[in-house]
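pls design
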């Protein structure tokens, strides 16, 4: 079984997908970590992040694994290093490169062969798993998403700047020539603005079990 969730940054996709994975015993895969992983590698190796060819080469040479829901790059669990402002910024730009997207998608296919999975990102319901049995699109107002991000780490950045960055990343995500953020026609749309993580999780689990969402 494949459960796929898409939506913009800050709608709660990761937290909810992890909860659903635990409840239903699914293999959890966060596709954003792959783009963050490529970006981490680019920045770590001192590669110029504006040079698309070098970014593609860096992605080709990377080794990605997902073990027990955790993301490994070149054999190391780097999850705690993937959420810096520099990676937020450059991942949104590097993930625009179509060849980087193909490299990531190929590895995601390899890792998920014959598994029951729940995966989330921007193009999981449309490009990567168009035949997923269960598709969801999570959405929330940019102001609500910015407030959630701000509350997670109030000292890092002022609210207005968090909001501006969310709006900028939304714009990039929607306008990617390949893998742009779209609502699949057969996805269940959930506005998470005024729902708790538990409430969204319940809706998703109920929809998967065929009960009223
Ligand atoms: O979900 P996230 O914020 O961790 O994703 C990191 C970056 O990767 C973000 O800029 C969007 C991009 N991304 C993408 O282009 N396609 C995906 N399937 C997942 C993430």
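designed seq:
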């Amino acid at each position: 079984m494949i459960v796929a969730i898409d939506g913009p940054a800050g709608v709660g996709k990761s937290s909810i997908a992890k909860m659903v994975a635990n409840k239903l015993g699914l293999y959890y895969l966060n596709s954003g970590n792959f783009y963050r992983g490529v970006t981490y590698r680019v920045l770590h190796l001192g590669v110029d992040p504006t040079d698309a060819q070098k970014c593609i080469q860096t992605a080709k040479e990377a080794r990605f694994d997902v073990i027990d829901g955790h993301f490994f790059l070149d054999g190391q669990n780097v999850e705690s290093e993937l959420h810096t402002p520099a990676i937020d910024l450059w991942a949104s730009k590097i993930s625009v490169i179509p060849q980087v997207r193909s490299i990531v998608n190929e590895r995601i296919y390899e890792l998920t062969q014959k598994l029951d999975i729940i995966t989330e990102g921007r193009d999981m319901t449309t490009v990567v798993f168009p035949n997923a049995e269960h598709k969801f699109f999570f959405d929330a107002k940019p102001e609500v998403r910015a407030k959630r991000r701000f509350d997670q780490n109030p000292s890092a950045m002022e609210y207005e700047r968090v909001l501006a960055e969310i709006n900028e990343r939304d714009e990039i995500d929607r306008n990617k020539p390949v893998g742009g953020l779209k609502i699949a026609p057969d996805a269940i749309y959930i506005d998470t603005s005024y729902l708790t993580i538990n409430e969204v999780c319940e809706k998703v689990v109920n929809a998967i079990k065929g009960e009223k969402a």
